[in-house]
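A common beginner's mistake is to predict each chain separately and then try to dock the pieces by hand. The better habit, illustrated here, is to supply every component at once so that their relative placement is modeled jointly.
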Amino acid sequence: MSFDPITITRAPDYRLDSAPKHHPDDATLVSYASGGLSAGAQLLLQCHLACCEHCRERVAEAEAIGGGLLEHLPLAQMKTSVDDIFAKLDLLDAAPTFSTEQRPVTRPDWLPEWAEPVAQWLETDQNWQRLAPGISQIKFDQPEFSKDKAVRLLKISPGTCMPSHGHNGSELTLILSGSYCDETGRLCAGDVADLDPDIKHQPIADRDQDCICLIVTDAPLKFEGWIPKLMQPFFGL
Amino acid sequence: MEKVQSASQNWNQALTEVGLNRDREQFAALYQHFAPRVKTYLLRFGLSDAQAEELAQEALLQVWRKAEQYHASKAAASTWIFCIARNLFIDQQRSGRGKLENSTDSYHEHEGLLNHNEQATEDDNSWQSSQKHIEDALKELPLMQAQLVYKSYYQGKSHSEIAADLEIPIGSVKSGLRLAFKKLRLSLAAESFAGGEML
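With all components supplied together, the output reads:
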């Protein structure tokens, strides 16, 4: 499966009812632009960018820095001459343009249009796996995500209180539907929580509907208290 | 007096022509300017010479194929080509083709390389002078921040990889990159005001 997401030329533009208010850290946007994000984090950012003009502009600036740096690189010796390249262009132009037929991806009802890239990683008839009362998950174990500690979808029933936890590494959360509140405020569809390792938080899902989020971690979460510790094995961390 | 277009706009124009008219002469110029730079970019990621050569070629062939999608109003040609090269590298890395040799270790070791490229052709002069902004801005960064930019852009490393490399907390990687970005984007904005936006 190809990752061919981040060319600035075809950023889709979906409007949400209200523009996202919680954005990834600038440092995360820079890493997206420079190609440094893990596959999971890149997937998450791709979805957020599809619905966030503010961050698309930031990424364009970070990519322009990349372009500027490219201009400044010393020249390597190319062995392929312009004539060789022209010969390849002839071949390219003569070749019939076969359409790269993408396998049609069905998007489940709970997945918003702007988060379509997530759909390709779901199995058909993928079931939510119950972790604890009111909490279930779908974990992405594909080899493409081997550099991520964990990439998962979490579904939290209305009013459910997550255990308070900190992190060893960073945690990126994208709200796909519903909303939750924690120490940093209220997060709604399209919002991203980009938490530094030293931040502890305790999300509580709002009461009206399930809260579904995409969560990408790059180090084990640290839970506190005995009940959360018992839960930790269920999270598979 | 006629305004002289900056070289950056010349490249934007050339790429636009390739997209509109399949202009081979313009493509040849783009190839000669950008392919050697894209190859260096890929070598920095630790690709072998042969791999970098192949991928740089592929990047420029994509430029030919996708040129119609380029819009000069959205990005400079150099930025667009940077994105193509970056995406190709990400794809190739994830598909498991090609093992990486050790990548160059630090910005410090390569600081000098930013200066030694004086092979600009005649029409490069004005672009060079406007590009000075970003180069200067990079040099003015504290060494640690420059190191973070280097590891992000030239080695494609993640925050946690950089934290491990430099033995500093992830929080420091993020705050350093944040500050560096703030300074670099200011210099970029200054550049587009000072640069050739007078058409």
